[in-house]
Structure formats: structure tokens, C-alpha cells
Amino acid sequence: MASFFRAWYAFVGLGLLTFVFTAFVGRVPADVSSAVSLPHDLVSSAGRNLRSSAVSLTDRSDLRADNAALRQALADSQATIRQLELRLQELETLLEVRRNQSPGAELVASVVGWTRTAAVDTLTIGAGRRDGVQRGMPVSAPEGLVGLVVEVGEHRSVVRTLLDPQSRVGVAVRGRGGQGVAVGEVGGLVRVDRFIPEQVVREGDVVETTSYGGLFPRGVEVGVVAQVLPQDPNELRRSFLVQPAVDVATLSEVVLFAPQ
């Protein structure tokens, strides 16, 4: 503190000296003028530097805030774009199923769970009563039939797949006619027993839904004949195994039809 006061007194003294020379001498010697201007310039320069630093800090703070706001806006835009992309995919799936299977396709739902045991084979979907899901709605995918809605909650529903032992689907062989019922088997295949053929059934034939039973739209692919089972030559009815068109283990979304 003492050194500060000494510097201040020296500054004031130099100022008085300048005043005296100006008043009585008329022209201040260069040495004296330089001595007085030096501390003044230092103070002025320090002030300018201080103001510049303050402005710079303010600008940097504003820049950081602007950058943060822009980053958040970009993140929000990217999230919105992603949601729009997903919605577009849903609409494309819905249109594909309407075009190739049935115009009764109503909505797309995501698959949120899958249960497979010796007694059941079901999917849980992320849509329920609030989304318009009803019990008895057929469920499909672009590849083919998936199953039937058997339980409906407010936000989720349960779909019994073709492989569930309680599943029953009226079927025919595409291009060959006939009529029968496909019964689920948890082992990964669907079994058609006592099928009434119009023509010979062969491995590789496409099996599709019929109006028999009134639960499913007609003409939706169920799968392909994997094996024709041997039987008594005198028996007109045939039995065969069907490889499902849809691998339920890999499904991420399904399409629901209006109840038949």
C-alpha cells in the first residue's frame, strides 16, 4: 500500500511540475513531458486492455451459449428426422401389405417381446386398445401371415403365432386348391392334417389362407410345403408339414388387419 501512495504522489508531482512549466516557462521540456505522459499512457493502455478483455470474455461466453443452442437444435432436428424416417418405413410396410395381401391392413405395431415354450408361441406388440387394437385382429408381415391377436391391453397386446399349438388357420395350396386346417407346432413347422386336395400336393408348394373359419383374409401366404407325409393309398386326405413364411424370431414390426 505504501508503494502505491508513493507512486501516486510521484504522478501528482509530475503533473504539478508540468503545470508550472506551462504557466511560467511556456513550453514544457520534452524530458518532463515524456516523464508525465508515460504513467498516463500506462494507465490508459491498461484501461483499454481491460475493456478489450472484458468484451472478449463476453463475446466468448455468448459464442459458447450460441454453440450450445445450435448443438441442441441440431440434436432435436436429428431426432425428429429419425422419427419421420421410422414413420415412413411403417407407412411403406403398411402399403406393401395392403397391395400384396389385403386392403384391410390398418396399422403397424412394433414387436417388443417374444415367448416360446413347449406350450405357447406368442409375440408382444407395442400397441393396444388406445391404438385401435382389438381381439381377433389377424397379424401379418410383408413375408406372410404371423398370427392372431388374443389379448389386448391399454398399451400392449399379445399375438398368438402360427407356431402356437392352439393356432388354427384355414389353408389351401396356391394354384392347386384344396382345403384344410394348419395347426401350430412349437418345433418350427406348421402341420396340416386331413387336407382335402384338388390336385397332388408337392414339396415347395405355397400354402395360403382361405376364408375357411372366417378369421383371416384370403390369399395371405402361410409358408411352403416342407414335407408331404406318407399315408394309406386308400386315404383321400393328405397330411404335410409347412415351413412358415415368417421367422417370428427376427420380426421387429407387424401389420394388423381389421377383424374378419
Question: Brief overview, please?
Answer:
By secondary structure, the chain is an alpha+beta fold. It is 37% helix and 31% strand.
Task: Give a verbal description of the structure.
Helices cover 37% and strands 31% of the residues. The protein has 260 residues and is α+β, with helices and mostly antiparallel strands. It has a six-stranded antiparallel beta barrel. The protein has a six-stranded antiparallel barrel with strand order 6-7-8-11-10-9. Strand 1 (105-116) and strand 2 (121-125) form a beta hairpin.
Primary descriptors:
Thrombin, subunit H; 260 residues; alpha+beta; 3 domains; elongated; six-stranded antiparallel barrel
Present the secondary structure layout.
Blueprint lengths: L1 H24 L4 H71 L4 E12 L4 E5 L12 E4 L2 E9 L4 E5 L6 E6 L3 E8 L5 E7 L9 E4 L11 E8 L9 E7 L8 E5 L3
Antiparallel strand pairs: 1-2, 1-12, 2-5, 3-4, 3-12, 4-5, 6-7, 6-9, 7-8, 8-11, 9-10, 10-11
